[in-house]
Amino acid sequence: MSNRRPEVAAPWSSAGLLPNATAILRPGDTAPVLLQVRDVTQRYGAARALDGLSLAVRRGETLGLLGPNGAGKTTLMHLMAGVLAPTGGTVLLDGRGSPSSPATRRRIGIAPQDLALYTELTAEENLRFFARLYGLRGRALSLAVERALALAELTARRHHRVHTFSGGMQRRLNLACAVVHGPDLVLLDEPTVGVDPQSRGHVFDSLERLKALGHTLVYSTHYMEEAERLCDRIAVIDHGRLLACGTLHELVRRHGGGHRVRARLTRHPDDVSSGTIVGDEQEWVLPDAAQATELALKLGSSASSLAVRPPDLETVFFTLTGRSLRD
Amino acid sequence: MAAVTIALKDLRLLARDRVALFWVLGFPLLFALLFGSVLSAAADDSGRTFNLVLVDDVDSPQSRALLAALASAPGFSTERASRDAAHTLVRRGERLAFVRVRDVSGELGLELGVDPTRAGESRALSAALARVTIPSDGAGALPPLSIDTTEVGRTSEDSSFAIAFPAALLWGLMGSAATFAVSWVAERTRGTDLRLRSAPISGATVLAGKALACFLACLLGSGVLVVFGWAALGIVAGSWLAVVASVVSIALCFVGLTTLLGMLGRTEQAVAGAGWATLILLAMLGGAMVPLAAMPDWLRRASDVSPVKWGISALEGAYFRDFSGLELLGPCAVLLGVGVASFALGLELMARRAR
Predict the structure, then answer these.
(1) Residues B34 and B62 in one domain
(2) Model confidence over B287-317: pLDDT tens digits?
(3) Which DSSP symbol is given to A181?
(4) Which chain B residues are within 8 Å of A106, Cβ to Cβ?
């Protein structure tokens, strides 16, 4: 036992909520790159889960990985966490550390898609166990556990066994276990999957607190509303390839495909050209909101139903892949 | 129709799970063959052979004639040895008994030194000896003989439980080990292995941690049994140090085996089933269920591959066979070898799975 690991400093500032390892940075090109994924390929036999994918995550930002099931999001997460070694390409933290090395893994936390908890242990016992694996001891350990319990809003249930928790509470604890050691980079693999809407809201509150604390987050999801609400930038992935990456505004501007006006007309106004026939409706695609509003006003008195849909992630995804995200 | 569809699906799943397939088809076959062989050997007295060591302390024409009669009698496999060598062979459990011809007040007498763990065989041996030494026509050249029977290595203070205790202890150790085999795969099924693999520790450290837990559980379980045996049943070991060495060796062996078993299965059910089935198979082959003496010769030779046999041998040596350090080294070395090899194989499987 003489070869004891030295105590690791508390990952959270004892004075407030700020983690001392990370500065709060809003998305901006000036923030340094924390994680670099370069031309990464991952093969499983003949199948390619990832196919020459490259992207960068800046310090302090929240990057969303948006794609349908089987797009390669989880594989990418596992590569970033160092659980898998890529078949080709490199993953680097701060430009030099590979996640396969223990020193780099110490700076990463992952909340797996499936709950990864010891259900016969209490919430606190789970957190203490995982924090110890990262070298936390003594006061630093206790402080880290307190912060993680607070983040997950589980302080009152700290001594309860996990199997007595609701699905949402387990999800929050799953998240807390990923951040208890104060990582620079937090990987969140569909952290709200399979929970009811109310619990999902609680989980999302925890995620927003995490973001407010300045953690760098990589967040995989196939829920557009989550990506829109939480992420500074969104990477659209399908068939293991990066199709587009940018802020929501950038993606919509580049790939949104315009504002869609759809109407079921009782008579056709004279000053409006014919739209595309979609069933018993007509649809017009216009480049900006002003033109869409003007058209809607003209159609208003002649339509039994009328809808204006601005471009969003759904249309971005459809434009990029030719199919709906939920297909 | 739906039931048939479900059944076909389950059979297809079974066919694609080679490990499960073995336990459903291969294992019962193996078990049936083993039990069949043991039971047929036990039922067939005509094929029984008594392995004896003959000692002639008198060296007279009569004593030589007596031993020659024994050597040529059907059902006896004999060899000659000095008194000390014969005693050692029986004490180690390598022979059923020694037969020593000695002088008893000017008459020939027989001392039968038997292995205390083979009491049933010893009784049959006494009867067989009487048949040889007293010819059925009553007109043999041999005078009536006195036969004194002693149990080699066992003292009169030994509890009657002492003989069975090593096998009981081994079952206890197997119980601890089998329970832990499941914990390996449980990490995978509950997803926590992903967290362990993403932590800044090596796969070998994870494996070592799991192995240590299994080892300590084995030690704790056997410690409780040993203390219970001593306090409640009066079982005193010939050497407590040898008991500790034996238990540690057996525990390390089972830690290795459970590591390997844990890596082979994909579900907790598969590993639990496979773990117990493997251990029962090894126990049966190793003499923890059916005495080795009841097995046919080929199966007794095959029992060398079972670490259970070596575990029982080490524990018997420690408890009542008075093994020296050197004698104990053999079974302990086999146990450690099996443990290390199994652990290394488990580690390799874990690394391969991670890749």
Answers:
(1) no
(2) 888 777 777 778 888 889 999 999 999 999 9
(3) T
(4) 200
**Dihedral of alpha carbons B176, B179, B180, B181, sign:** positive
Q: What is the mean pLDDT of residues B176-196?
A: 81
Q: Do B87 and B228 share a domain, yes or no?
A: no
Answer yes or no: are the C-beta atoms of A185 and A34 closer than 8 Å: yes
- Rounded percentage of chain B residues whose pLDDT exceeds 70: 83
Cα–Cα distance for residue pair B116/B322, rounded to 1 Å: 13
Evaluate whether A2 touches A39 at the Cβ level (below 8 Å): no
**B193: distance to nearest CA of chain A, Å?**
8
Q: Is B198 within 8 Å of chain A by CB?
A: yes
Whether B201 and A133 lie within 8 Å, measured CB to CB: yes
Least confident of A42-51, A185-194, B26-35, B37-46: B37-46
Same domain, B277 and B336: yes
Q: Which residues contact A24 (CB under 8 A, 6 or more apart)?
A: A18, A60, A212, A213, A214
Domain that holds residue B314: 19-40+159-354
Among B187, B188, B192, pick the best mutation site for testing chain A contact (most A Cβ within 10 A). Answer: B192
Interchain contact, A110 vs B190, CB within 8 Å = no
* pTM, 2 dp: 0.74
What are the tokens at A322? 């030719």
What kind and span of H or E run contains B289? none
Exposure letters A139-150 (e unless 16+ CB within 10 A, then b): ebbebbbbbbbe
The shortest C-alpha distance from B184 to chain A (Å) reads 13
ipTM exceeding 0.85?
Answer: no
